[in-house]
Amino acid sequence: MDKLLTIYHGSQKIVETPTFGEGRKNNDFGLGFYCTESNELAKEWAVSSLRDGFSNRYTMDTEFLNILRLNSPAYTILNWMAVLVEHRIFSIKTPVAKRAKAYLIQNFGVNVNAYDLITGYRADDSYFDYAEAFINNAITVEQLAKAMRLGKLGEQIVIKSKFAFSKIRFEGFEPAGKDTYYVLRKTRDDSANQSYLDILEEETDGLYMQDIMRGGVANDDPRIPRNISEQGTVCSG
At what angle do helices 95-108 and 126-135 cross, to 10 degrees? Predict the structure, then answer.
């Protein structure tokens, strides 16, 4: 990551001054300002089927920031899952899922609030469905890791601390038309869903969530996939 970043925030409004402490607590990595290094992808996340949006552009000096890179080899896909289940609202469909949430947080949890900035997968639309299937013991951790590479949705950049917010400089905005960018967003999501269905047809003898709990699997287990992202970065509006 370069020290001087150009990042984009997709929104249905122009955001000249991002404000620390605002936003939804139930986002992927908790409260924060969610961004991407891709202008085009920010535009996709800025629109809905009914409304146009904006891609807000910023520069940010990251030289003195404490950065958590969840998609680096230092972390596994279950670290990402643990952060997700701690912040997002999941459909707990089975007794396994209830125990799984506690197990993931206890054994794979990461204190995201100790960092100024976080990079990691975005779990919206299809991605959230894949994570929910895993916690409900419907797919293996290997299938989850493979599914997370679908759709080329990549990573998001989340600005967490007041110090990091002080490093953001607004540089302008571009409009995003729903007629163009909602179609692109839906096409990307449909492609990911089809590839996910193909994965489900493959035979697998991998680890399900219940196997992980029964075996007391820890973060250093070589069977848990690491470095889950090789894509560019992406974020929500």
Answer: 100
